[in-house]
Structure formats: C-alpha cells, structure tokens
Predict the structure.
Amino acid sequence: VSEQTIRPTTYAYTFGRYEEPVATVRPGEIVAIYTEDAFNSRVKSTADLPTKVNRWPYLNPQTGPIWVEGAHPGDTLVVELLSIEPTRDFVVSAFIPGVGGIVASENTPMLNEPLPEQVFIYPLQNGSVHLSDSVRIPYEPFLGTIGTAPEIEAVSSLTPGPFGGNMDIPDVAPGSTIRIPISVEGGFFFIGDAHAAQGDGELCGVACEMTACVRLRVGLEDGQVVGVPQIESPTDIMAVGSAKPLEDAVRIAWVNLLEILCRQYGLSRAEAYQLVTQAGRMRVGNVVNPKYSVAARIPKTLLPEPVLRVRG
Amino acid sequence: VSEQTIRPTTYAYTFGRYEEPVATVRPGEIVAIYTEDAFNSRVKSTADLPTKVNRWPYLNPQTGPIWVEGAHPGDTLVVELLSIEPTRDFVVSAFIPGVGGIVASENTPMLNEPLPEQVFIYPLQNGSVHLSDSVRIPYEPFLGTIGTAPEIEAVSSLTPGPFGGNMDIPDVAPGSTIRIPISVEGGFFFIGDAHAAQGDGELCGVACEMTACVRLRVGLEDGQVVGVPQIESPTDIMAVGSAKPLEDAVRIAWVNLLEILCRQYGLSRAEAYQLVTQAGRMRVGNVVNPKYSVAARIPKTLLPEPVLRVRG
Amino acid sequence: VSEQTIRPTTYAYTFGRYEEPVATVRPGEIVAIYTEDAFNSRVKSTADLPTKVNRWPYLNPQTGPIWVEGAHPGDTLVVELLSIEPTRDFVVSAFIPGVGGIVASENTPMLNEPLPEQVFIYPLQNGSVHLSDSVRIPYEPFLGTIGTAPEIEAVSSLTPGPFGGNMDIPDVAPGSTIRIPISVEGGFFFIGDAHAAQGDGELCGVACEMTACVRLRVGLEDGQVVGVPQIESPTDIMAVGSAKPLEDAVRIAWVNLLEILCRQYGLSRAEAYQLVTQAGRMRVGNVVNPKYSVAARIPKTLLPEPVLRVRG
Amino acid sequence: VSEQTIRPTTYAYTFGRYEEPVATVRPGEIVAIYTEDAFNSRVKSTADLPTKVNRWPYLNPQTGPIWVEGAHPGDTLVVELLSIEPTRDFVVSAFIPGVGGIVASENTPMLNEPLPEQVFIYPLQNGSVHLSDSVRIPYEPFLGTIGTAPEIEAVSSLTPGPFGGNMDIPDVAPGSTIRIPISVEGGFFFIGDAHAAQGDGELCGVACEMTACVRLRVGLEDGQVVGVPQIESPTDIMAVGSAKPLEDAVRIAWVNLLEILCRQYGLSRAEAYQLVTQAGRMRVGNVVNPKYSVAARIPKTLLPEPVLRVRG
C-alpha cells in the first residue's frame, strides 16, 4: 500500500477555512507531507536578507489546508508524528529588525535602533547542526506550526492559538501524538515550519529553519477533553497555552492540564492542583510570536489509568 | 441629494476580506449606517442571558464590509463621524462568566468560580442613561468597533488591532475624524458596537450597548503616516495601540504618536519625546478584549502647523 | 500661630522604618515641608548628566521620615495638600540610558543600544513651563512621591506600592486629600519628587522636576477602608494600584475602588461593578518605575452619601 | 576540624542590612546551617491553617544575616551547595486564599471568591515524597530562597530580585555553585525555604516545604560578571531573572546570560545570541511570588574555555 504524498503547489499563510483544500486524508491514513521553510526557501546565502527576499506578511508558509474525511466541529484531530526528514543539507536562521524576544520589536516597540539584519546558514550533517566548526547541536526536529481552522477567523501562520498554529513547542516531534480541537467541517489541517533544533523561547525569532518531509498518521476522536492543543510524548502529557502576556499562556496551559487530569484521569481538583504544583514541568515554546506558547506537562508515570476514554 | 442608507440583511463577525460587500460608498459621500448591538438585539429583558440567547463566537455583529471606491492598499481611510443616534429607548449591559477585566476570564483563566451571569436593562431618556432612579450618566455615544480588513487575516469582531476593530475608545465619537490604514482593494470598511456610555477599560466587558443609526462621511488619503488608527477630536490628536500586555498597547500608541509628531508636525525625536512626557494624556479603551486598546493623545494647541500634508 | 517648617539636613532614599525621624507632627497640624528634586539639585545645566552627577540608587530623595503623633498600625494617614510652591525658577528633565517606558530599560532589558543621555532645563515662569519659546504647558504641580513606612520592608524611593511611594499620580495635588495606610508606630511619613507638570505615564521617566515648599495638613483616622492609597479630589474619589504588569495595577486600583464603593458608600457589589464599568475613569501615573501606578476614579456626583464614617 | 553550625535564635523576614548578623563565616569555610520552613514550623497537621497560625508578612523565615569576612560591595558571593538534609520526616503544602499562580491573588486581584484554604502533610520517606499511597515523587531538595542584602532596600523574604531572594529555582541544589552580587560590607548572606520537591512555577505557591540542615562552602570573587544571580550546575550555566511581567524575567535572564557568554567565554554578541536561540533552555522557578523568577541556561559542553577568570 503506497502512502499518499502531499506536495502543494500553493501554500497557506493563514489558519482558516477560506482556502481550497490541497488534499484529502482519511482517518487512520499515513501521509507524507512536504513543508516549505519559514522563508519560502528564498534565503539560501548570507546575502539573502529576509526583509529583501520576502514580503510581509507572507512568511511561514503552511502545507494545507488538508481536508480530513469525517471531521466535524466538536471532534478532536489526532496526529501521530512518525518522522521529520530534512530535504536539504543546511538550515537557516537570521536576525531580523523588529523580530525577537529580547529586542525592540513590532509587538513591543521601543525608540531604540534595531540590531542589524544578519543571516546564518548552518550545515546539517551527521545528525547535528553545525553552528560553527567547534559548536554542534543535535538534530532534534519538530514542527513549529501545526493546527486546524478556527470557526470564523483566519489567523496568520505566525500566530498560535487554541487551534494550534505557530506554537514552536519542541515536543511536537516524532514519537509524539498531538490532539487539536476541530472547529469546522473537514478540520482544515495545516503543518509547516519544521525546525532542526531550537532553544526554549526561540529567542531571536528564527530557529534552525529547514524544508522537510513529514510522515504522520491522522485520526479522529469524538468530543474534546479541553479546547487547546494537547501533546502526548513517550513520557509526558501536555497542554499548550498560547497568549500574551506570558503569564496568561502559563495560566491557560495549567488550567487546561488540570482539566485533563480531572476529567480524563479522575483526579479531584485538589489532587490535580497539588500534583502539578509539586511535580509539573513547563516548557516555553516561544517568546517572540504575536502570542507566546507554553506547554504544561506531567510525567505519565505519576498518573493513574484514564477514566475517560475518548472514542476514536 | 438623498444620503445612502445601509441596512444590512447579514452581519459580519470578522474583520476580513472574505465576505461579500454589503454596500459601496464613494469618497466624500455621507452615509447613514444602521448598526446592531453586541448581542444581536436578543437581550431585551433581564431574563435573556447572553450565554443562552447567543452562540459564541457570533457576537458583536458589524455592519459591513462596505466597499470604498478607489481605496487601494497603502491608502488611509478617513471617517468623519457626524452623529450616532439610538434606535431604541434602552441600553443593555451584562455580567458574563469568563468575560471582564477584573474577573477570571477566558483570556486569563483561573481556578476560581465565575460570578453569576446577570443582565442590566437601562432606560435611555432625556440625554442620559438611567443606571437607577438616582444615578444617571450622560449619553456620550461612540462606536466601540470600527475598522478595515487586514491584508490576509480575518479577525474576530471582538478583537482590535492595527486595522481598528473592537478598540472601545470613547473618542470615536461625533465630531472626531478617524484614520485607518487600508490593506486591501476596496478597504472593506466595518462599523458596529455603538455605546451610549462607557467607563475607561469597559471593566465588566459590556458597556451601555445600543442599536444605532450612524451618520458619517467617508474619505481617502494617499499614503499612511503610521500603521495604526489615528483619531482627531476637536481638541486632540491620538494614536491607538492595541495589544497585550497592556504596556505593549501603551508602547504601540506612544511610539506611533511620536512618529506622527515627527513626520507630520516636524518635531525632532527629542522634542516629541519630551512633549509627550510632560503633556501627553492617555485613555485606556478596554482591558477586556483579546487585545487591550490605549489611545495616546496630545492637545492640538501644543502643536505647530503640520509640515506634511496628506493628500485627500 | 506659626506653622512648623521642615527642612531636612539628610534625605531618605527608602520608604521604611529604619531611619531616624527628622521631625514630628501632630494630627491637625499644618506644616510647610521643603523637598529636594529627583536629582538632589545636582542637575543645573544641560552639561550635568544624571549618570555623572548622581550615584545610583541615591535618587529621588525624600523629606522624612516624619513621625506622626498617635499614629498606630491599622490607622489611616490623612494628608490635605494645601499648596506646592516652586523654590527656584526652572525645572529639569532628562533622557537617561536604561530609564523610560518606551525604551529598553533596566526593568525591560533589550539587546538594543540605549538612546544618548540628554538634559533639558525649562524656565518656570508666569504659571507655565516653557518647553520652548513657542510651547508652554501649564504649571500643574503635584507630589510624585508620598507615603508611609511598610511594616517590614524598606522600599526604594523610586518604587510605589500599597504604602504610596513613587506613584506619579498628578491628582496628588493642592486641593486633594490623600489617605494612606499606616503600618508602623508613628507612621513614618515621607514626601518628595515635586513635579511642575507631567504627562500620563511619565514616558521618559523624568517629569518637570523641581524643588518645592509643600504646605499640608496631617490627620489620622481610625481603621482602613482599603489597604492602598486613596485620593479625594474636589470632584472624584480614587484608589491607586501599583504593580507590574500594568493590568495588575489596573486590577488592584479597581478592585479597591469597588471595595470603597461597597463598604463606604453602601453600594451592592453589582451596583458598584456596573457603575465603574459605565462611568469610571482611570489615569495612568507612570509606566516607568519598578512598579506602574494607576488611579481608578469615579465622580462624587454619581455617589450617594457615605454610609461608613471613618473617625478622625 | 569541626565545621561551624548556625542555629539562629531569631529569623529574618527581609533581605537587608538592617538586622544584626547571627554569625560570621570566612571565605573557604564549610558551614552547616539550619533553616526553618516557610510557615515557621507552625503547620503540623491539616488543622493548622496558615492564615491562622502565621501572621502576614512574617512568613518564609531566613537564617541570617550571616557576615562574610572580607566581603565588599562589588564582590561576588560564591556558594557551593554540598547537601540539604531534612530534619523531620514530613513536608507541608497548602492552598492559601490570595496565593497562587492560577488563582485570583493579592498580586492579581479579581472579584471571584477564593478557593478554600487547605493543608497537605506528606510523608518524606525512602527518598521520596508520598503525595498519596500510590503517587510518590523523588526527593530533589533545593533552597527556594538564598541571597544577600541589597544596597539600600530591605526586601521581604517572599520576593526575589537581583540580590537573589525567593527565586524558587530547583537548580539551587547540592552540586551547584551559586554566585550572587554583594552590595554591602559583609554581604549579609541569608538562606531558607528548603523544598523537598517542587514543580515548575510552584503553582499553588507552596512547594514541599521542609526544615533542613544545609551544608555549604562560602567563597568570594573579586568583581561581578553580571548583576544577577548565576548558577553553575554539573551540566549547565545559568543566569536568573526576577521580575514581573514574566516576559521581563525572561528578558533579564537571557540578556544577562548573553553578557556572561560574551564577557566570560569570549563569544561575540551574534554568536551568543544564535547559540541561546538554537540551544538555550529555560526553567520557570515561580509564577506566584511578588516577582517571578526564570533561569536561562546553556549546557557547558557547548561553551569554549572561559577567557575571563574571576579571581577567588
């Protein structure tokens, strides 16, 4: 049985229901999806400044929308990430004026002068990204952006939200299962923004950006435990909050993880609140996007058997 | 010459370019536009709880989109607000679970229980809103929501941004001129959410909501001085910042007002920064929407003649 | 009867109970208090750069602590501000690297380069501050800093809090009465930081700073209606919130004003919440200090007679 | 040679220079310091509600101040943490009205009702904390609070800052070395608030609180690389930012870690900014204190040999 391969001729720059689906998948099907990099592959050398070779807001192109057969509002999309393979031997990063978490930016404007624009091209070889001859960091690929269409909005692919989007959470990686609320018929599934590696917060706003081939299995579950993206890694369960300020992202992530612990695992509110206080972990995906994303998490070893079975 | 009257049969729930225009206006034309209230006129008594009579996110309906002849991306829409007349003799407000600036909310979730839902119907008589037999506040009408379509996004009518939207700035009132960047052909102009009165911050999230007939003159200017909404009242010029956290809304508002003072009024950066530090005023429109809005302002009496004339 | 005059030989740089009182006042007594400017009067020309002539954190000197006879923890200090007179004919402002609300700062550090340091000396003549030959703004003096000692902390005079401190609220002006919680025996009252004028937010961090003679009457009331500073102007009552982020300052201000409306004026919680939503105003004192300050306010004309009489 | 043991008769509730030192240590000396728990050991059963058995703000008692011989302003205190041993066989946690990161609180007040107060007593046995018969989490002890005296302030032991204080960073653990700026003669060193375990963010505001005996070696270095606490664990170097909003804590942490990478390890600004963007990690200590704390970190394996040697 050959897998379906999705190679779009056009890319989407919003998460929304207004564009024509580029493909259709059935629940249970494994597909191989090709994704562009955040700069539309137009940054190939240090001379290709992002502000010259791209026009805002046409950044971070997504492969999609993909129509999921049988997906109805109120369902949950279940994405098992199987592999993320690079389709070239280098990654790109850049300092871009007005972008970043520890510089004056479009979202946090200041009177200070911006830092100069600068491009970084790093070889991707032997399972590592070569920041320099002496500094190599492991290839730990994940999808910066994954999501479905909101009910009425069309949201820039630079922005995350309850529908997923540009969360930049490194746990959206091979071996993890991601659950995302479905708000429209067909779900309108999108992915993009593969990263070969990224630090917490994605500080300068541009990770190790790459083009990729992503293999995943798509599924559906009836109902939604919570209204935000959930990640199940081999070791942990997580809920993702996307908001500004960062403390609201933190609150959304934890309040939803508590809801999962109570509804799905049968803990009392007090048990759940104590458990996350004493043993929870959180990871900051990004502090650079129009909304920040945080993944609240708890090890599965600390949880009882689920009492609620969502039905696939 | 009779004015055009716009009474939509359908309403818009997003600011975006994806819906069919409901009318067309020419620059210089005066139009009378009818607007719904934030609850689709379904809250008529204290028994009509908003969460029962409305389905989220179908709130705050807008009249539009209105096609503006000759409007091109890069232009500025100029709206002279002439009058806002109520079309009924009462206004409504409500406490809604998960809504408000000083309660746990959807945007700032907490483990605390929500306050009970409650509706308030206030008579609108003799130029005042009757909060009670003894407490009357002046009728000071304005448009809570006004804007154009963003370039690629479709943004919920509950949210403000550089395109305008749900700013809840009381200076968007008769006698003021509002300038809004145009990002798409035809502009896609929307208005709605008329308020008979509102306190700073719109704390519980629901002002004195009314249905209205709004008379205004639409114009166009070439170019954009800044990329955010500007308001010129009889006394002040203002720039509006919409963002979270609130300090980023403050920063966007002031950095853009400085830009106006420098580019349009010829002040040096240091003169402008000193002038706003010593004599600027700011008004907080709302602290309840998905983004907060702040209007930074300076009295026109403190300004020289403009050096830059935008061309109408 | 001659008034007591307080001319300190030493100044305080913290609000706290650890320093020796420089004077004692009795409730009901009118005193004339001399205050230094924020730069210890060491900035007298544009060549006197603040970072050269002052050593951090020895800024914003306060006159005090002043021992208030009979002041006990749990009481309220009542300060009637009678007049603020300048004691020289100029004011100073400055751009200081790392200071300001719309620049990278010590509190919000960024990788961007700071703006150059620059001093501004403005004549204070004929009831106005002369920003330039053509731009004059009215002399509207107030105390940027006023407060008592916290129970156990000693807080930099640059920082505001529930004890008052560096709030930069322009309503702390002649004609207003300020109420501040007392936390230690004797109260330990401090004032300083007189401003000849200031815009909302005090954007660059330095208002029209002046030396002054301040006349005021000190009183005491049993008990505390709320635990934050309250201001009663000729027209309004206000509660001040000081915090970061700015939305928390907003929340503290409004939640305390509601408490005043309920406890002191007999409104129900719903009446109070509706009243401030529809008719409240707020003023942002500063967005530059280690905590920001906001005054939430409501006109006295909209209030019934108080039901709670605090006892003087 | 017998080690010095410090068992205070009085405890400190502020970080400041206003109290008498309880002991003196010499650089190079190993000391055993006993610490109280955050509730002054008054919570021993689930009936001992914190708001009944403690009086605010007398919480989180610190052992100190400890005079460090030869410590001068401008030096760095170097603390090698050797061991943290519990001195009883249980830990305590609690839900306290007005405390916590995902509830309405004193710092983020809301109109919602607080959650009920509740105490949790957990056995500490066989290297784990027994949250219940079935849920055990590993004993991973650390000091929630450690610091020196600020130059002029006395800061509540509930609050963190550049002087250290109540950071709640789990890496302040045996095997780590903590560097803290010294601002006053003698340093005035304090520790307390030992935790047997804690989740990221310390969500309900109370970790697994215990009394402890802490062994550590105190040292001094000339000069300060940066003005915030630094942690060196067996694997990582870290800089700690403490501030609100949380994004400012993030900014302080990263800007200071970049400064360390540039000054101490000889990286260029661009190299350092890229390295942390692609490979940095961050840990959120708490989102409940008057300021939040974040530790920005980078693995030592990715760093070259230091070029700057601070002198011990």
Summary: The longest helix of chain A spans residues 246-263. Chain A is about 10% helix and 35% strand.
